[in-house]
Amino acid sequence: MRSTGPLAVLAASALALTLAGCSGGAGGELTYEDSPLNEYLSAAYGGDLSPEEQQKQFDEQQRKQEDLMAECMAKEGFEYKPNLQNGSVVMADDEDAVKWEPDKKDWVEKYGYGIVNNPYNAEGASTPGEEYVDPNQEYLDSLSESERTAFYETAYGVPPEEDELNEDGSYEYNWEDSGCQGWAQHELQGDDPWQSDEFADLREKMTELWSTSQDAPEYKKLNSRWADCMADGGEPGFTAQTEAQQSISDAQNKLYESAYGDGTTEVDPATVEDPSKSPEMKELGEKEIALALVDLGCREKTNYTQESLKIQFALEEKFIKDNKADLEAFKAAAEQSN
């Protein structure tokens, strides 16, 4: 079965810097789907499946995983009802999907980058989803505090200690430390080729490719032309296209931190005024739209989307040439594990 774990996330974000504020091309233009590396990565994360096939695969995997988890929990002395609402993925039909069109002026005039005024939030508010009900809640309520702690540790593993966390709060996943859920996932997926020691060197090289591509001289020239345009449009101070959108995200985070703190001190949400409805957030939303409109104009003027994809794909072609054997071996291993 295809893994939808770390590789899927990494591959999906691989072109995030390249595609920030960009949508698919038309009329023969390049899109992220033209990525040369996609030939190798799609074998592992299911990129060759239709949305309907992916939905069916996710649903079936979720059902089997929950059944295995219930079996594991029973062996450890706990009741556990399979939770089919937990962790599922819904692939929307094209006609029902919320449109994400940051390359269209009328969309940007309404949503900016989609950070403060997020179209998905608006969709969720108008069409509320089914209320989540944990099938295990009644059983959990019957347990003492120490028994509940044991339940969660058995189900999901003991949370990592602070000294085991990376600077960003993440940590290295190991299915053997992830309780019955980790065991169930491993039983279904087997050994994920992307996580195996055999491809550790390839994994490191690929991560470096994606994290450093913006440092390429070609990108710096493109960003310089874009930055000059932004300055001419009244938005100076940026050196890379991704910084414009990030500045709004950072400002939004500061507003939330000023209300709820930085996480080091417990805050009762009931005592805090919702920052999303504050005058400051409204002002930030207006600033976001103004900035995004200038950004859109400069992306169009510099042909940023197409030029950045050309640069990224050229870097990928070189990477493939230098690592062809390892990529072929990874592709074969991924297809074998499907």
Automatic annotation (TrEMBL):
Region (Disordered) location: 42-64, 260-283
Domain of life (superkingdom): Bacteria
The keyword Signal belongs to this UniProt entry's keyword annotation: yes
Leader peptide range in chain numbering: 1-28
Keyword set, alphabetical order: Signal
Compositionally biased region (Basic and acidic residues): 53-64, 274-283
Keyword Signal set for record: yes
Name the UniProt record assigns to this protein: Uncharacterized protein
Organism of origin: Microbacterium hydrocarbonoxydans
Organism ancestry: Bacteria, Bacillati, Actinomycetota, Actinomycetes, Micrococcales
